[in-house]
Automatic annotation (TrEMBL):
This is Regulatory subunit of type II PKA R-subunit domain containing 1.
């Protein structure tokens, strides 16, 4: 296994057999498909992420980690998302 910059270990292509590599590749593909289906079925996730980025770009916080923690732990956030979902359903 090769050592990368910063002392991290890189991938070891010989660690898996060709059959295991193919199985891992198929698992990754299926996981991505499942994730995409989940995200498409849950509009609230899109609203959470787009709302977060919108606020982050508007406010440009110095400490993004603190801003993120405050944003996602805001007790009003679930209600905001719920109201946006209702608004979008009415518009459709």
């Amino acid at each position: 296994m090769a050592t990368l910059q910063g002392g991290l270990l890189g991938p070891d292509p010989g660690a898996l057999s060709p059959a295991q590599q193919e199985q891992l590749r198929n698992f990754k593909i299926q996981t991505r498909i499942a994730n995409e289906k989940y995200l498409r079925a849950h509009k609230e996730i899109e609203l959470l992420i787009s709302g977060f980025f919108r606020e982050m770009f508007l406010k440009r916080p110095d400490n993004i980690q603190e801003f993120s923690a405050d944003y996602f732990t805001d007790p009003r956030l679930p209600n905001k998302i719920h109201m946006q979902l209702i608004k979008e359903k009415k518009a459709a």
